[in-house]
Amino acid sequence: MPPAERYAPWMRLALEEAERALHAGDVPVGAVVVDAAGQVVAAGHNEREAAGDPTAHAEVLALRRAAEALGAWRLEGCTLVVTLEPCVMCAGAVSLSRVQRLVFGAWDPKAGAVGSLWDVVRDRRLPTRTEVVGGVLEDECGALLRAFFATHRGGTHEVP
């Protein structure tokens, strides 16, 4: 089964989380963590504006909630599904959490750290490497971000 089909149901859940961020006035990025059995164990969306916290990115919040739900910070066997290619901070969190796989929707040519500008999670100098699948429901994920930036920030952020 092609990755786009395999991960699309979880990406749709991540898009629902992104919509929550949008309605709260934050950059619409959403994430879900799925365990090895395919069950969603945690979700998150950007909450930087709501929390006044520069680290309250969707990925970080979803990883924290997954660790709490599973009772372990090592999220081995889990998959993180996120609507936008992670930034450097989030890519670092992905690596530290030891998730097996990272699936993302839209590429981020301005700040992406898993292929666009850097490739943090597959850096051979790190003790773990994460499988990366990019471009899942890319059009839908990108459209939500483009609409946000066109109305909130004058279209200054490039999203394919």
Automatic annotation (TrEMBL):
Pfam families found in the cross-reference section: dCMP_cyt_deam_1
Reaction equation(s) it catalyzes: adenosine(34) in tRNA + H2O + H(+) = inosine(34) in tRNA + NH4(+)
Enzyme Commission identifier(s): 3.5.4.33
Residues binding Zn(2+): 57, 87, 90
Alphabetical keyword list: Hydrolase, Metal-binding, tRNA processing, Zinc
Cofactors named for this entry: Zn(2+)
SUPFAM superfamilies: Cytidine deaminase-like (SSF53927)
Alphabetized GO MF terms: tRNA-specific adenosine-34 deaminase activity; zinc ion binding
A GO BP annotation: tRNA wobble adenosine to inosine editing
Active-site residue list: 59 (proton donor)
Entry note: cofactor: Binds 1 zinc ion per subunit.
CMP/dCMP-type deaminase domain span: 5-117
Subunit: Homodimer.
Function: Catalyzes the deamination of adenosine to inosine at the wobble position 34 of tRNA(Arg2).
Similarity comment: Belongs to the cytidine and deoxycytidylate deaminase family. ADAT2 subfamily.
Protein name per its UniProtKB record: tRNA-specific adenosine deaminase
